[in-house]
């Protein structure tokens, strides 16, 4: 396979190629071997080979084909060494191309390669796993992140994350999880799980739940990539397109969510010229596709509605141009379609902006006091609405309560400032 010299950092080129190809690579190898742990080991071997060879020999014309060929050859070697699996070695050898000049066409020899990536996403989100394990395994197998990168994103020790991923693989093996796409109602249920994991990853990146950083952009960016991948693999699902639209439109704000000194900036105070216009165009485009599918009778749900709300903010050139009445109406629909305390709290914000703080407080007062446990969300929103109503003493008390609840230092700094404590 011909190689080309690259003027960039070879390590960065390899990382980019791995991120782009790892899901298809591990997915195809899992289909061939029926062993997700072995598939990942073979893929990692191919990555090590690339790290050793590409800096000196140059980057191949088709990095994905090179990685696939290398991984398959290591698979052949593995099965040859295991006499009881001689039949699988023969299957792999039959698909192993002999002429390196033909390697760029290797993708054509692998049936349903995009389905393999989709299968891998569904496998990573198997119902036998916890939500945390699904997120970790998705980032590992589908996102191609290292254990250290995932551990940093979720603020845990690398050894802890390694154990979590290892346990997840063992659970899949013990449950005899099938590497097949589910169908019918099971597919819908599992697709909901997949989308939930991607959105969980995005939210942890967009608004970190703990630690010193306001955001963890690597996690948010990876979630956006996973959402785009899922939308490409399931382009006729309006909720999948809604998820892509939601994370990209919200993700577009990240450059404006911190100021030049690194302090957090809330939505209304953000410099909207810093919003990423490419992400907005992508997100709005995905939302339009979802709207077309909805017009054909395909059902939509919470991601579509949340994306429609996010699009209202994206379309407003200034904060004061925001159509809060439209947002409040969309939240009313969302509260019917996907009721829950978080939706109600956000609906209170929208009604407070659209119809005055007393209207927002009326919605918030209907949320049970313990609905979100020790989350700072309810008291922080209450403080904002009270402040807008001119009830400053009560607002300071609410902000102080919220500051005591949050585990994120950047959020605590904002809340303490609004409480007049700094």
From TrEMBL:
Residues 190-290 form the DUF6596 domain. The keyword Membrane does not apply. GO terms for molecular function: DNA binding; sigma factor activity. Pfam families: DUF6596 (PF20239), Sigma70_r2 (PF04542), Sigma70_r4_2 (PF08281). One of its GO terms (biological process) is DNA-templated transcription initiation. Residues 120-172 form the RNA polymerase sigma factor 70 region 4 type domain. The keyword Transcription regulation applies. Keywords: Sigma factor, Transcription, Transcription regulation. Residues 21-82 form the RNA polymerase sigma-70 region domain. SUPFAM superfamilies: Sigma2 domain of RNA polymerase sigma factors, Sigma3 and sigma4 domains of RNA polymerase sigma factors. Coiled coil: none annotated. InterPro entries: DUF6596, RNA_pol_sigma-70_dom, RNA_pol_sigma70_r2, RNA_pol_sigma70_r4_t2, RNA_pol_sigma_r2, RNA_pol_sigma_r3/r4-like, WH-like_DNA-bd_sf. Signal peptide: none annotated. Belongs to the sigma-70 factor family. ECF subfamily. This is RNA polymerase subunit sigma-24.
């Amino acid at each position: 396979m011909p190689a080309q010299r690259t003027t960039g950092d070879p390590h960065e080129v390899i990382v980019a190629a791995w991120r782009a190809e790892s899901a298809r690579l591990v997915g195809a190898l899992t289909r061939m071997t029926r062993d997700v742990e072995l598939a990942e080991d073979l893929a990692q071997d191919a990555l090590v080979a690339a790290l050793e060879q590409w800096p000196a020999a140059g980057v191949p014309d088709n990095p994905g084909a090179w990685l696939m060929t290398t991984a398959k050859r290591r698979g052949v070697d593995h099965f040859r060494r295991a006499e009881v699996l001689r039949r699988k070695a023969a299957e792999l050898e039959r698909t192993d191309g002999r002429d390196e000049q033909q390697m760029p066409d290797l993708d054509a020899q692998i049936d349903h390669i995009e389905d393999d990536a989709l299968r891998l996403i569904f496998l990573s989100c198997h119902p036998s796993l916890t939500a945390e394990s699904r997120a970790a395994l998705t980032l590992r197998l589908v996102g191609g992140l290292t254990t250290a990168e995932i551990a940093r994103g979720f603020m845990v020790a690398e050894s802890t994350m390694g154990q979590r991923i290892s346990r997840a693989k063992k659970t899949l093996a013990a449950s005899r999880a099938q590497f097949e796409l589910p169908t019918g109602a099971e597919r819908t249920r599992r697709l909901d799980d997949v989308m939930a994991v991607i959105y969980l990853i995005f939210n942890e990146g967009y608004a970190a739940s703990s630690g010193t950083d306001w955001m963890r952009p690597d996690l948010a960016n990876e979630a956006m990539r996973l959402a785009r991948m899922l939308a490409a693999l399931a382009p006729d699902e309006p909720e999948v397109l809604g998820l892509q639209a939601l994370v990209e439109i919200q993700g577009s704000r990240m450059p404006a969510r911190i100021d030049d000194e690194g302090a957090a900036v809330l939505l209304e105070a953000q410099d909207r010229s810093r919003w990423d216009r490419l992400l907005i165009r992508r997100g709005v485009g995905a939302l339009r596709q979802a709207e077309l599918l909805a017009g054909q009778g395909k059902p939509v749900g919470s991601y579509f509605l949340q994306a429609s709300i996010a699009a209202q903010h994206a379309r407003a050139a200034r904060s004061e141009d925001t159509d809060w009445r439209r947002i409040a109406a969309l939240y009313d629909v969302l509260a019917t379609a996907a009721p829950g305390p978080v939706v109600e709290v956000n609906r209170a914000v929208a009604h407070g902006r659209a119809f005055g703080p007393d209207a927002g407080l009326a919605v918030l007062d209907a949320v049970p006091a313990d609905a979100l446990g020790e989350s700072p969300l309810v008291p922080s929103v209450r403080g904002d609405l009270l402040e807008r109503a001119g009830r400053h003493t009560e607002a300071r008390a609410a902000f102080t309560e919220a500051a005591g609840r949050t585990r994120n230092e950047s959020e605590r700094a904002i809340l303490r400032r609004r409480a007049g404590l700094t």
